[in-house]
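2 proteins. here.
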Amino acid sequence: MKKNKNTIKILFASIAAVLIMAIVVSGIFIKRYIDTYGTIGTVKTKHSTDLYEVPFNANDFQISIYEDLAKLCNSIDDMTVDGELSSLAALVVKSFVADYFTWNNKRGSYDVGGLDYVYGPHYLRIQAQSREYYYADLDLLIKQYGKENLPEVIEITIVTNRHIEEKYEHEYSEYDYDLDETINKIAYYDYYLINATWKYAESENYDTSKLPSYGNFMVVNREGRLEVAFYHEDY
């Protein structure tokens, strides 16, 4: 009986040792992950809206834009009224630019900014193009310069903001179960054409002079949610 009790004690001691080791290893792994990629958490804001989310890694500039965006969203009774949402369209562009063209709070090439503000049907296309183009070398740049030394958008100016009378046409296919066939459809959306310029924080380590600082944007009103459908960067 005494031998059995000793065996049980040894067994429990071994299990405890394994658990402690697992906790230690997990702690080390988590610390290394945070040191490399940063923490993942929810940014607290005074104002919020169900239409848009503030980026989890948002800096103070991005948060200030989101606060204005949320306040304006909460003050608008009818998000579908044509021609009366130009201020909101401008803030959507600012939100996109501040997140998309800022690199110093990104974790790597896969961490594409601004996607919460893009047109839903084009989400995957814009994400894929960004990873192949603007974000393609971000992993290498982080290693070479250090994340904290990479570009950060600190100022955005809306140059022009035009509401277009004609509708944006989006062609898509939808399966009709009653007809048992795929039907081609067209959705018509109200939209705005916006030109914007932006500036980056000065850096002694990374040259931002060759980065985009001017862009043309199309913002569509997709059933009460304004989204960036297209953009073209000028250097």
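next one coming up
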Amino acid sequence: MNELFISKAYHSVIGDIAVLSSVSGIRRIIIAEKSLPIFKTGDPFNAINQIASYFESHLKTFNLPIDIEVTDFTRKVLQETSKIPYGFTSSYGEIAHSINNPRAFRAVGGALNRNPVPIIIPCHRVLAKNSLGGFALGFDIKINLLELEGADLNSI
């Protein structure tokens, strides 16, 4: 069985954040969870320090291995989403087009809603055509993250 680790919590402006990792990579970002199962405490990839650096506006790109179990479609969506630079945004339609499935913009939204490693894979940077769109962690957190990165929200 793959050993799991959970980091100590980082206290951010969007809530307490912890990182669940396997020996192979980051499995899940946990935000403001009330209770967690017991895991071996640790952060083998130093992910919490990278997250803290991101919230302090020092880190623009994460350098962490990812170890998630998702469908092929979701993997394609998350890989494209990972390419969106800090401070910039894309749309569900643009992501759908870039994975050669231009009519799948709603499915792109669904895949992003199931992103197990938000912030590291910046699904908050993906917007609807004429609005901010949704975000699994909540609208306020999406705005908070986009403002932290200095994204231009005036054109929405």
